[in-house]
Amino acid sequence: MSEPPRPPNKRTTIYQVALEAGVAPSTVSRAFSRPSRVNADTAERIRQVAERLGYRTSPLARALTTSRTRIVALVIADISNPVFTEMVRGAQEAANDADYTTVLIDAQESDRLERTALERALPSVDGIVLASSRMSDSTIRWFSKQRPVVVLNRAIPDVPCVVTDNPQGARRAAEHLAELGHDHITYVSGPEASWANGIRWRSLLEACIELKLKVRRIGPFSPNIEGGETAVEELRRRPTTAVLTYNDLMAIGLIRGLDRLGAKVPADISVIAFDNIVVGEIVTPRLTTVAAPLFAEGAAATKHLLTMIDGAPARTGQPMVLPVRLVVRDSTARRRTGR
Amino acid sequence: MSEPPRPPNKRTTIYQVALEAGVAPSTVSRAFSRPSRVNADTAERIRQVAERLGYRTSPLARALTTSRTRIVALVIADISNPVFTEMVRGAQEAANDADYTTVLIDAQESDRLERTALERALPSVDGIVLASSRMSDSTIRWFSKQRPVVVLNRAIPDVPCVVTDNPQGARRAAEHLAELGHDHITYVSGPEASWANGIRWRSLLEACIELKLKVRRIGPFSPNIEGGETAVEELRRRPTTAVLTYNDLMAIGLIRGLDRLGAKVPADISVIAFDNIVVGEIVTPRLTTVAAPLFAEGAAATKHLLTMIDGAPARTGQPMVLPVRLVVRDSTARRRTGR
DNA sequence: GTGAAAGCGCTAACAC
DNA sequence: GTGTTAGCGCTTTCAC
């Protein structure tokens, strides 16, 4: 009832292979490590015996002696946000190529849950990729003292980071809206704990000053569809013709909310978002958005993490910046003149 | 360059705690296991010392002796399919409540990748939940001989399974369409490797016979938006007024494709899907769909897995069936009479 | 209730 | 290149 009588699930050990092959256990071990420092034919014989006996090296025991598990943790802010799926794919590809396994941790937009889950995973992983972490800088630094850490979508001094070119993205968005005749942009904020949210807003601010556009900010709101719908209330009190949202999901919610109020996008209001998730292409109107190279982000972060695990120095200093591009679709249009 | 000079990352060991607390290592071990078979005050003293020294029990070493890692693997068919996010949440909640960690494996709709990833994870997990597995029955049985396995969205004899009430769902869908005046339903197939796809089709077939509706099937197509778009080609060659798709994503793609061809949903064609993912509510038209209790599925499967890990007998025999309900939204309408 | 000793399966260090 | 020895940090008999 209480303690599990689980069958120990007998596995063939390195000793049985050694015995059968007529060599020492250490030789078997060497035959299975790379580079295999064993005579070619001895290695072959060992391999055959191992095969026949169904021997599989125990990652647990190996980890206990080497203190390396060949597992990396990938923490994402919210598994329900499609923005992470491509990142995950990129990270997994990079990890698999290097013979590493990825474990995914869903922070559920909570710094507390993120921290708890990560603490629990910490002892069994060789390194950590933090994608859009909601934890504080100091907590992240604390983790980075225990294990190699690479941060994605965020810049923290002294911790290696991979970010997208948010300033360029915000600027391209502003330019696009300006070209369409808009002279006032409203930024719809995502979570305050999001570093990307801060930089996106500040970059927009700067771009608008330079382009001589008026700009203001509302929020913060949840970085999802409901958040966007909520934002409509505030937007209604302070009308505008052009909006930049923290991410695609919020733009989708915003457009829905506006629609309910009878305001049409893009006829009445132009909307631009960030990220370029797949659904942005299937909603009506299709979203104009600042596209991030999601797969590449995940891959780049993981690759750098793996070099750190192999002893390379952390790339501190400037974060690695990945380019963005503006994808113009149907949620932006020329500002209506007159009324 | 080749071998990692990783700092061994000194952790406090059970010996240091034992020394400091003036007890034997085994006593420390006992103090940290439940139920703690140690004098209450001794236990308290040990706990304090441990706390002070920052002692954390090593899951690796523990796993090596107990052969239990307190990790369960959750394999999902495709991380980009939102249908899995709630299942994952449900599974994680159940696991966390029992002090287990979940590792997520994305099979990327490939039985080969699924198998490879799972084989690699196998030695380090106590059990496996297979959500919408694309592997063959025999492969799944093979895994279930190595470790406790619970299968989600699929029924396999002699392996414990959690499924939704697909027959009831298909029937409700057919009834709904019949009530709207449709007398012919086209089923748009998902992947052949999907068990759910098979049962959904067969159930529809039965329901239609009973309700005296005509029915046919097209496909198979990929279980995603592109798959739905592709299906339009075939649908065009064999027109219909009512469609049931394997899942929501395909319905979304199908509706887009129809739209491009000038056919309107629901005016010209009614569409019903399965699953009830969140985006089904935000697309235009909003999807009518057979809603599955996604969170509950994940939780139920994981809970049963945990009992098996604790030595309870596998619930073979009949699969656990969870109820579905038809959510009527805007993608279905009364059949146009005349032309 | 607690201590001593043995060992989980593997790798590292040192001989030869 | 290969064998020998000594653990990694913990749990688990078996005594007492």
TrEMBL record, chains A, B:
Annotated signal sequence range: none
Entry GO MF terms: DNA binding
Protein keywords: DNA-binding, Transcription, Transcription regulation
CDD domains: HTH_LacI, PBP1_LacI_sugar_binding-like
Boundaries of every HTH lacI-type domain copy: 12-66
Top-level division of the source organism's lineage: Bacteria
PANTHER family: HTH-TYPE TRANSCRIPTIONAL REGULATOR GALS, LACI-RELATED TRANSCRIPTIONAL REPRESSOR
Name of the protein this chain belongs to: LacI family DNA-binding transcriptional regulator
Organism: Actinomadura vinacea
Upper lineage: Bacteria, Bacillati, Actinomycetota, Actinomycetes, Streptosporangiales
